[in-house]
Design goal:
The chain is mainly β. The protein is built from 1 helix and 6 strands; from the N terminus they run E-E-H-E-E-E-E. The strands form 2 sheets. Strands 3-4-2-6 form a 4-stranded antiparallel beta sheet, with helices on one face. Strand 3 and strand 4 form a beta hairpin.
């Protein structure tokens, strides 16, 4: 699934992790989102089901989403 992020917008992503991936900490997932360019990142949940929140500070951009991200919506501040 391809998704476009818009400058200075906040997003909420629903994440479903695989059998071994579910062992990852929320901090590890947040760090991956920061590496991708998001700021003000927060990840909640445990096991397979997580929700990640983050703000995109850059220019509008489009990319294919990893299979673990099952939905993304714009979130309020």
């Amino acid at each position: 699934m391809k998704f476009t992020v818009h400058s200075n917008k906040r997003y909420a992503a629903t994440i479903k992790l695989g059998f071994f991936e579910r062992l990852a900490s929320n901090d590890t997932i947040a760090e991956k989102l920061r590496f991708a360019g998001f700021i003000e990142v927060n990840v909640v949940g445990e096991g397979r089901d997580r929700t990640a929140f983050g703000t995109w500070p850059g220019a509008d951009a489009s990319a294919e989403l990893p299979s673990q991200i099952v939905s993304v919506v714009e979130a309020g501040r």
